[in-house]
């Protein structure tokens, strides 16, 4: 069984520095507080980034194996928080945008479906507490 451990340390005000199993560190903060010029991330927004990263890594790997690479690929994730505390994402929309002059829609659909239903563990975690909706957009360049 794989275990991941991170250490998160309070640095000042509403800021924390956290590490990653890869050894890199970054700052998290409460975006509603004045944090001056500090560059950092809000914890809940990081969850959306993790979802996009997890699924995106699956998709690019699968597309490469299918010989269906694209010129550009981006994922836009929108999360809707509950109104009451503790606030959590109750609804999440994941949009997959692919651009190329020679798109292969069937392979793209298959890669995204495999990520969403089989490979992306973060997607599965989100489904445990949120309604997750996905959509694919193909852009010819």
TrEMBL record:
InterPro entries: KH_dom-like_a/b (IPR015946), OsmC/Ohr_fam (IPR003718), OsmC/Ohrsf (IPR036102). It comes from the Bacteria. Pfam families: OsmC. PANTHER family: PROTEIN YHFA. This is Osmotically inducible protein OsmC. It comes from Polaribacter gangjinensis.
